[in-house]
Amino acid sequence: MSDTIDLDAAAGFAAELADAARPIALHWFRTPLDIERKGDESPVTIADRAIEDELRARIRAAYPDHAILGEERGQEGSGRYTWVIDPIDGTKSFITGLPLFGTLIALADAGRPVLGVIDAPATGERWVGTAAGTRFGGAPARASGCRSLAEARLYTTSPDFFDAATWPRYDALSRKAAFRRFGGDCYPYGLLASGHCDLVIEASLQPYDFMALAPVIEGAGGVITDWEGRPLTIASGPRVIAAATQELLDEALGLLNG
What we know:
The protein is of the alpha+beta class. The chain has helices at about 5-30, 45-60, 90-95, 165-175, 185-195, 205-210, 215-220, 245-255, and strands spanning about 35, 45, 65-70, 75, 80-90, 100-110, 110-120, 125-130, 135, 140, 155, 180, 200, 225, 240-245. Strands 4-3-5-6-7-8-9-10 form an eight-stranded mixed β-sheet, sandwiched between helices. A five-stranded mixed β-sheet has the order 12-11-13-15-14, sandwiched between helices. A two-stranded antiparallel sheet has the order 1-2.
């Protein structure tokens, strides 16, 4: 077996994984659910675990020498390639009936994300990103080209995801944007890749939350880093910023860190 993966084939396989996840998510969406609390008090449902178990089984069958990292079941295996799964990104949205939750699937090569899928089961939308580009619904996706914070449309998921040290930094920056919006979990990153918003800033993400986002954003011509401007890896986190252009990212980082 070659040490180098066929990335086009892997992207096709990742789309098949997303196809498999969708009906499971939709089966449980807007139904009565038993909700458990994990050690960090975040919620988890039968849908989260069922999706991750299905995707793990398919990855093991197709790429038995690859590692897997998932939100619900942790790390399995080791090696050059790691599949990173968030079965339902936005579980709080999912359990409250908001259709902007997603399934995130990434492939990391030596810790660097090289393939990402953002799939929104309830809306039927999907972004697939690699170095060759990002596609949305089969067509190329492109970031907006916005270069100025004063003109930027800014998203973050929730004020609750910032702490006492990071919220004032975000709040001051966001008030300089054209406008700011809240909510969406992974969905605004897809909107950024398609040119509908320009800047997304988060402060409490895990690798399974952001690994799939990086290839989607970068493949669409945008940029995504941590708050220090460093490229994302599986060891990064928890503070992430995505922007339509390098100029916009530089301005935002200057304010966050100034």
